[in-house]
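ESCALATION

Customer reports they have been waiting on this structure for their group meeting. Please prioritize. Original submission:
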Amino acid sequence: MNTPSQVKQRGSKTPFDHVPFYDPGSPRATSVRALLFWIGKNQLRIIMTGSFFGIIGTICLALIPGLLGRGVQAIADGDRDAVTRGALLVILLGIVQAFAGVMRHRRAVGSWIIAATRLKQIISRKASELGADLPRLVSTGEVVSVNNNDVERMARGYDNIPRLIGAIVSFIYVSILLISSAPSIGIVVVIAVPLMSLGIAPIIKPLQDREAEQRKKLSTATNLAADTVAGLRVLRGIGGEEAFVARFKDASQEVRVAAVRTARMRSLLQALQIVLPGALVLVVIFFGGNLVLDEKMKIGELLAFYGYSAFLVLPIRVIIESAQRITSAVVSARRILHLLHIQPVNRWGTNEAPNPNAILRDDESEVEIRHGELLVIVSESPLIADDLCDRLGGYVNADAVTLGTLPLTTFTRSAVRRTIFVQEKEPSILSGTIGSIFEVKHSGRISIEEAMLAASAQDILDSLDGEGLSAEVVERGRTLSGGQRQRLALARTLFVDAPIAILDDPTSAVDAHTEARIATRLAEIRKGRTTVIISNSPLILDKADRVVVLLEGKVFAQGKHADLLENSANYRDLVTRGV
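Update from on-call: job pushed to the front of the queue and completed.
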């Protein structure tokens, strides 16, 4: 096995230190506009270069109708040299346009990837800051939906910026050409295009509302699926598969209906992309044809004019597509901001030096924990015991717990986590190797081998494929039994060797023989350290320096296990379950 020195410890820097700081709590960062601007500002260079190539590419495309018109007119006039020059210029413009298009697309995709990555990083940093508060404040499905769907849709808004800027610039350029060549028709075209673009404005708000509703229902369905996967074994045990299928079917149908409503609005926008430009081209051909018949315009000029007018279809389509992208980005930005604005349960202080030798006291239950003792707490209610663990660990109502004379909230959260380590009743085991489970900050006093031995967890290595700490554990430790997960988590807790360790029923899923070994070894390995165990097991209680009995959430009695058995009927009922 690896020695403690071989186990990688996290450094002082986090994986997010290179991410520019975004404070969602500041007054300037509470709006969607602020978040969109912050993302754009931190990739301004790639957006600007992409926009430059977007302008070059669309200008080249805008010049081609004029050259084609001159070429046709040269053919009509019998000018071979002009035809040759026109053809060469068209080829040259095509090459430049192709190069600019490639460069614009590369930067547009790069902008999208950078925006998505940066958003995922700040969401991950927010999740890291919230820590254990995150699952208490927002559902798993909501986090998954935001991190996958909303980040993607918001980042897509930056993908379209170079095209949009190029389309606007080319529209202005072509408008000038149209007005200079045929003022009457040119003015009509130049006015008609913005009016047609404004015609889509009434559709934007309903589309935003429908997309927001669709995302909400999708998040609900995702959350339902995640909860079901986590509790699949329980569902099968109680025969609840049909009930789940019915619930998920209803949720899926709601998502489908919302998606269809959104698609209807999107299809209207797509139809406008064809109808509006088509109407404009018909108007241009009608008026231009009359000018040719009246010999006020040459056939080559009409062809160029038609090409310019047809080219203006591109800005309209880009504007409509941008409206869709912006709509999705705004809806997604609101959901991302909602997640970023979630505040921790506790407000932490600045004190970095808690005294682990001081008395740890919970004011709500009146439990006092002395330095260096093995204290076992017996409770009539598992829920009350769980709440007590959360308070003592500083996860909820940390202001009700004092260390010495100071509330936990006067210290920084990192200082509290370094001093007090809490192991849940159903601890989480993440995917990876056994060795990765021990990649945590630790005192260095206890080796992994000693921790595994004390937790009676050596047999777990033999049950997995691999050698020693290289053995793989799948996500959530699904291939492990409940007892194996508990013992592996206990080994991690003992390896950390925190000054104060709080264990919530750490042997509830192991057999009596294993529990007896763990009780003896745990008392030995934690000697000199403060250890609190929530348990009603006589094997654990027998090793306690002191036992505290909770009734209705308050200290009812305390003392040695044997004395309480003799003198307290309530204690006997809790421990022996009336036997």
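Sent to customer with the following note: The chain is about 65% helix and 10% strand.
Escalation resolved.
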